[in-house]
Amino acid sequence: MADVPRSFRLLEELERAEKGQVDGTISYGLDQEDDVNLVHWVASIMDRNGDLHSLKLECSPEYPQRPPKVYFSPRIENKHVMADGQVSTSFWMIKDWNASYSIEKLLKAIRDNIVLGRRM
Amino acid sequence: MALPKRIIKETQRLLAEPAPGISASPSEENARYFNVMIIGPSTSPYEGGVYKLELYLPEDYPMAAPKVRFLTKIYHPNIDKLGRICLDILKDKWSPALQIRTVLLSIQALLSSPNPDDPLDENVARQWREDENSAINTAKDWTRIYAMQDN
Questions:
Q1: Which phi and psi angles does B24 have, rounded to 5°?
Q2: Peptide bond preceding B62: is omega within 30 degrees of 0, i.e. cis?
Q3: Which entry of B86, B103, B125, B135 is annotated as an active-site residue?
Q4: pLDDT under 70 in chain B at which residues?
Q5: Which of A107, B62, B117, B138 could form a Cys-Cys staple with A26, CB 3.0–4.6 A?
Q6: Scanning every residue of chain A, which has its alpha carbon at the shortest distance from the alpha carbon of B84?
């Protein structure tokens, strides 16, 4: 596979979200619409009761080789969520991150295994 | 993975015979990723500016269009705040007969003829339609602030 540069990879991910092509229980986008470096993102995940949990994500210059940092804001109580709200490297998808994953896949895994508490 | 002959040819020609006001050179790490500079056309609000862009030839190029965006901030109704460009040949009007060179020439032409009736940035386009003179002045200000530094 050709090596897609970080910026075009993230623009593709953004476009999917803008066009509503992602799963309806999650959403994400840039925190600031003029963040040309595509670093700071906001997201939400819907739980069983229809309540929304807000998250912040940070994509480093090494994305997608390295996973984004993800924070619950406000924090939720879970063994994989640290005191500052960050999803810890003990969470399987962050621990075993692979460049073929994406913001969408990471949010889905967090929804399934942390917010909905399904077994990993 | 070997680089297709077509990409090698196009790259050689871009370097040997650059189009006026345009330069494009492949990055050392990725031969499908180009650093591009376009000089703001004279008699456009972008005159005197030097614009940096990035261009990537996807896996299925030339069946699919190159991906291009501005890295230098620019006030233009068909270019959004992330530098994404609204241009038909980058989307549904792409044809494998087009090349990197034709794409960059079209982007240069877009700078000379903004099209507020097919906008990507609705706020910029509205100002362009309602008060063209003040829109052009804003575009000139942005050129001075963002496209003339260190050049």
A1: -145, 125
A2: yes
A3: B86
A4: 1, 150-151
A5: A107
A6: A11
Alpha-carbon distance of B44 to B140, in angstroms, equals 9
A52 in Cβ contact with A45 (< 8 Å): yes
User: Is a pLDDT exceeding 60 seen at residue A1?
Assistant: no
Position B8 scores a pLDDT of: 96
**Cβ separation of A11 and B67 shorter than 8 Å?**
yes
* Contact check, Cβ <8 Å, A2/B71: no
B68 to chain A: closest CA residue: A8
Residue B9 contacts residue B110 (beta carbons within 8 Å): no
Please indicate whether, in this complex, the C-beta atoms of B81 and A8 are within 8 angstroms of each other: no
Q: Using pLDDT thresholds of 50, 70 and 90, give the confidence band for residue A41.
A: very high
Compute the distance between CA of residue B37 and CA of residue B51 in angstroms, rounded to an integer. Answer: 5
CATH classification of the domain holding A107:
3.10.110.10
Contact B74, B142 (CB under 8 A): yes
ipTM: 0.88
- E strand or H helix at A43, and its extent? strand A40-46
Domain containing residue A58 = 6-115
Domain count, chain B: 1
Q: Is B86 a catalytic residue?
A: yes
Mark which residues 76-115 of B lie under 8 Å from A by CB.
81-84
- Is A108 a domain residue? yes
Which stretches within B70-149 are classed as H helix?
100-112, 122-130, 132-146
The number of distinct structural domains making up chain A is: 1
The CATH number assigned to the domain holding B60 equals 3.10.110.10
- B135 CA to chain A: closest CA distance, Å? 19
| Cβ-based contacts of A3 with chain B (< 8 Å) | 30, 32
Q: Nearest residue on chain A to B80, judged by CA atoms?
A: A34
